[in-house]
Amino acid sequence: MIEFEISGETYRVNKLDAFAQLHISRKLSPVLPKLLPALFKIFQSGQAGAFATLANPVSVGLPQTESGGGPDLKRVDIELVGDIASTLDPVAEVLASMPDADAEYVYSACLGAVSRRQGSAWAPIWSRQQAVCMFDDIDLGVMTLLVARVVMDSLGGFIRGLLAKTGERPKTPGSSGNA
């Protein structure tokens, strides 16, 4: 179980059960070669917070226009936006190439493993029965980050095994990358 913060909210991820891991790995296996380097880069570089900033600019303090009508693009770090966009390009390609049913299964299963701190308690963020997010402020950008964290946490060993076979050894969050 891991805990982390996105856009000022604390989330907890429980490990997926073995069959959910199996089904998710099967759905993601055709796209893992493109997806993994992008996910590792996002979390290693600290861009996850910046990605959440772009997904929900008001809640994380992106410079706003004086009228409060949205982000003030004249005051946004364009280099940072370019870096994030180039990192996210493979993720967008992967999501676009997945069949709808596969993408929905992966998101639903992964989001079902996430809870959010509400005072001293934890509340599930996803209703599996109704396939709906339980919090109005969680948008697609935050959902995607949450899914990525679940995949990296629950399938980390499987992914490292795949990468070991190809000779790649990217560092995962919290590791030195040395085996």
Major beta-sheet overview: 4 strands, antiparallel
Number of domains: 1
The residue ranges in which pLDDT falls below 50 over 5 or more consecutive positions are 53-62, 175-179
**SS class:** alpha+beta
Q: Round the Cα radius of gyration to an integer and report it.
A: 17 Å
* Structure annotation, total helices: 7
Q: Please estimate the helix content.
A: 40-55%
Distance from N terminus to C terminus (CA atoms, Å) equals 22 Å
Averaged pLDDT: 73
Largest sheet, spatial ordering of strands: 1-2-3-4
Assembly type of the shown chains?
single chain
Count of β-strands: 6
Helix and strand succession?
EEHHHHHEEEEHH
Globally, the shape reads: globular
Approximately how much beta-strand content do the residues carry? 5-15%
SSE map:
Blueprint: E1 2-6, E2 9-13, H1 18-28, H2 32-44, H3 47-55, H4 78-97, H5 100-111, E3 114-118, E4 121-124, E5 126-127, E6 132-133, H6 140-154, H7 156-166
Antiparallel strand pairs: 1-2, 2-3, 3-4, 5-6
Protein name: Bacteriophage protein
InterPro entries: Phage_chap_TAC_15-like
Organism: Paraburkholderia dioscoreae
Question: Explain this structure to me?
Answer:
The chain is α+β, with helices and mostly antiparallel strands. It has one domain (2-56, 79-164). It has helices spanning 18-28, 32-44, 47-55, 78-97, 100-111, 140-154, 156-166; strands spanning 2-6, 9-13, 114-118, 121-124, 126-127, 132-133. The strands form two sheets. It has a four-stranded antiparallel sheet. α2 runs antiparallel to α4 (78-97), α3 (47-55) runs antiparallel to α6 (140-154) and α5 crosses α6. 23% of the residues are buried.
